[in-house]
Amino acid sequence: MDRVALRGLKARGHHGVFPKEREEGQTFIVDLVLSLDTRPAAADDDLTKTVHYGIVAEEVVDVVQGEPVDLIETLAERIAQQCLKHEAVREVEVVVHKPDAPITVPFDDVTITITRSRV
């Protein structure tokens, strides 16, 4: 499989288990690796035979900005399922970063990484 990667997609969401997270929201950062066969698109120089990563980026931002969930695990799953709606995408790796997580000790980042594929 070939891979198309999108790194550092940023969007504000209202996800989390604490009321302050739901009320104020925070920035989430998403990295994606989409696995697909790019040979048909390359052979014909045809966008319709690959994945339009600009559209994927917009859809992922819509998911992050959309309906709040408690867990970043749930958010990652929703993002993965949205990516797999694209016919060319066979597998997706999703990393959701929550750099402003409500943790009481110094830290750089919290992430969840999942991989999902067509069954």
Can you put this structure into words, describing what you see?
With 119 residues, the protein is of the alpha+beta class. The protein is 31% helix and 31% strand. A 4-stranded antiparallel β-sheet has the order 1-2-3-4. The chain starts with a strand and ends with a strand. Helix 3 runs antiparallel to helix 4 (72-83). 22% of the residues are buried.
What's this, in brief?
This protein has a four-stranded antiparallel β-sheet with strand order 1-2-3-4.
Query: Which structural class do the helices and strands define?
Result: alpha+beta
Gyration radius (Cα, Å) is 15 Å
What topology, given as strand order, has the largest sheet? 1-2-3-4
Q: Give me the number of helical elements.
A: 4
Task: Tag the structure with descriptive keywords.
4-stranded antiparallel sheet; 119 residues; 4 strands; alpha+beta
Write the layout of secondary structure elements.
Layout: E1 2-13, H1 19-24, E2 26-36, H2 39-44, H3 53-65, H4 72-83, E3 91-97, E4 111-117
Antiparallel strand pairs: 1-2, 2-3, 3-4
Helix pairs in contact: 3-4
